[in-house]
């Protein structure tokens, strides 16, 4: 009997998995496969934190498959060569998968689909990661959107309403399984266990994703619009790594929010605001699809004239920023949270990015690369949109003259300093008033904590002058 290869990538779940549903509908044995092919993603091969998460997520998926009488076949190497080898070993006549949207992977998958079809193999791809495909939404003139609000208005009329497919109870297995590697053999985990703190707060895998969603719907969605900006509170969903690895799908999240809203469990404004935030994720993929050069180049070509500081002039400041030693508490708290947990609150991401790109005049690409390596939710579309937004060079970007004052931001969104005290414990004994700017204490400032690496007022003016020179050059 023929069989179907089900090629898992970043869709590491069994419920709401369109490729799995299609594979089961064929009525033949299904052979789940994961192919480790990071070279195909260059120049954006997965970072260290992402690889760590992937190890745990694959382990969870393999266990979920085993419960259903199936098995995850793990291989390493170029994806097309590996798929063709598996077809030869198993007699499979179909390969199904869910789509990825990074430019390098789109090009690879296009080549793979064409090659398989030339060989007489059924090759099918599905959408498991987005509400709408990036090419399905356009302006009235057929152009891509560059502003979020009209994009969201268009997207909101096309939200999916298809039923969510539950995970199957059994997955038909072949008579013989092909050989595969163990997940450990992929060497995804770091040799030095710097990631051990991650999994005190995270549970990679589909079960962890569903539990996180349920917890957020029960305890976080009510009041979300106001609480989401306060980093010391549990007012955000923390679903981003689960969505990135496809341990849960956006349709599942949408349906859970709609049920809570329809049942009167949450105010309309909170539900709408959360869905709008998920709309930014869709917008990010829309932009990456239409402007594939933007992970490295500004969407606004005028920013080619931006007088960023040279590498030799900012190396020390960049290291201080990366290590959470800038002397600016809210920034250091965020960078230390990132190192310890692989994640950072979104409000704080904007603050630390503004300091780097505007107060320090360090090119946004340096920050994007650091986040790419350190975040468990490192997503090329979201990372690119976020950094270009703060730097002012992307779609829907913050105006060039908008420079976050980290002290004012800290006082507004972490008024009692609870977030700072958690991640910068050397400041824990300071008063609520002093903790946001300890250098103002003069000789009474805590020992061992550095003074600010930059004068916030002077550097703000330097940034405004730099933007003015760029605009004049354009």
TrEMBL record:
Q: Which organism is it from?
A: Sinimarinibacterium thermocellulolyticum
Gene3D superfamilies with a match to the protein in the record: 1.25.40.80, DNA Cyclobutane Dipyrimidine Photolyase, subunit A, domain 3 (1.10.579.10), HUPs (3.40.50.620)
* Family indicated by similarity: Belongs to the DNA photolyase family.
Give the EC number: 4.1.99.3
Domain of life, per lineage: Bacteria
What InterPro entries does the database record attribute to this sequence? Answer: Crypto/Photolyase_FAD-like_sf, Crypto/Photolyase_N_sf, Cryptochr/Photolyase_FAD-bd, Cryptochrome/DNA_photolyase_1, DNA_photolyase_1_CS_C, DNA_photolyase_N, Rossmann-like_a/b/a_fold
- Indicate what this protein is called per its UniProt record: Deoxyribodipyrimidine photo-lyase
Write the lineage as a comma-separated list: Bacteria, Pseudomonadati, Pseudomonadota, Gammaproteobacteria, Nevskiales
Q: Does the record bear Flavoprotein in its keywords?
A: yes
Query: Which residues does the UniProt record annotate as the domain Photolyase/cryptochrome alpha/beta?
Result: 2-131
Cofactor(s) this protein cannot do without: (6R)-5,10-methylene-5,6,7,8-tetrahydrofolate; FAD
Write down the top EC class of this protein: lyase
Can you provide one Gene Ontology molecular function annotated for this UniProt record? Answer: deoxyribodipyrimidine photo-lyase activity
Keyword Protease among record annotations = no
Going by the UniProt record, its keywords in alphabetical order are: Chromophore, FAD, Flavoprotein, Lyase
């Amino acid at each position: 009997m023929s069989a179907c290869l089900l090629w898992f990538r970043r869709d590491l779940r069994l419920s709401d998995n369109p490729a799995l549903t299609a594979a089961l509908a064929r009525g033949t044995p299904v052979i789940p496969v994961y192919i480790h092919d990071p070279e195909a993603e260059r120049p954006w091969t997965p970072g260290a934190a992402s690889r760590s998460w992937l190890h745990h997520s694959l382990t969870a998926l393999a266990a979920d498959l085993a419960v259903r009488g199936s098995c995850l076949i793990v291989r390493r190497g170029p994806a097309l060569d590996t798929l063709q080898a598996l077809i030869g070993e198993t007699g499979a006549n179909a390969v199904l998968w869910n789509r990825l949207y990074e430019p390098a992977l789109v090009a690879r998958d296009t080549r793979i689909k064409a090659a398989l079809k030339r060989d007489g193999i059924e090759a099918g791809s599905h959408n498991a990661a987005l509400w709408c495909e990036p090419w399905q939404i356009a302006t009235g003139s057929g152009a891509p959107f560059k502003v979020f609000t009209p994009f969201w208005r268009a997207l909101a009329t096309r939200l999916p309403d298809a039923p969510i497919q539950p995970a199957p109870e059994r997955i038909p297995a072949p008579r013989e399984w092909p050989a595969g590697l163990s997940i450990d053999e992929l060497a995804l985990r770091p040799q030095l266990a710097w990631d051990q703190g991650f999994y005190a707060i995270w549970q990679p895998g589909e079960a962890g994703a569903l539990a996180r969603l349920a917890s957020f719907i029960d305890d976080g969605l009510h009041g979300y619009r106001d609480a989401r900006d306060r980093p010391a509170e549990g007012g955000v969903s923390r679903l981003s790594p689960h969505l990135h690895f496809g341990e849960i799908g956006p349709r599942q999240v949408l349906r859970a929010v709609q049920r809570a809203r329809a049942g009167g469990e949450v105010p309309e404004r909170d539900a709408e605001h959360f869905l709008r935030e998920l709309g930014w994720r869709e917008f990010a993929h829309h932009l990456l699809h239409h402007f594939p050069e933007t992970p490295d180049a500004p969407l606004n070509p005028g920013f080619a004239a931006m007088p960023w500081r040279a590498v030799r002039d900012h190396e020390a400041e960049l290291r201080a920023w990366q290590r959470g030693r800038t002397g600016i508490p809210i920034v250091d708290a965020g960078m230390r949270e990132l190192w310890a947990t692989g994640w950072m609150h979104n409000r704080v991401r904007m603050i630390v990015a503004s300091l780097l790109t505007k107060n320090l005049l360090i090119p946004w690409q340096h920050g994007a690369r650091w986040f790419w390596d350190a975040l468990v939710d490192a997503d090329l579309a979201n990372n690119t949109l976020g950094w270009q937004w703060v730097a002012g060079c992307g779609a829907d970007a913050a105006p060039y003259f908008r420079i976050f004052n980290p002290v004012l931001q800290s006082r507004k969104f972490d008024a009692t300093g609870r977030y700072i005290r958690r991640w910068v414990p050397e400041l824990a004994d300071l008063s609520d008033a002093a903790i946001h700017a300890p250098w103002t204490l003069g000789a009474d400032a805590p020992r061992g904590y550095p003074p600010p690496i930059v004068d916030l007022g002077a550097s703000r003016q330097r940034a405004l002058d730099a933007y003015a020179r760029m605009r004049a050059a354009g």
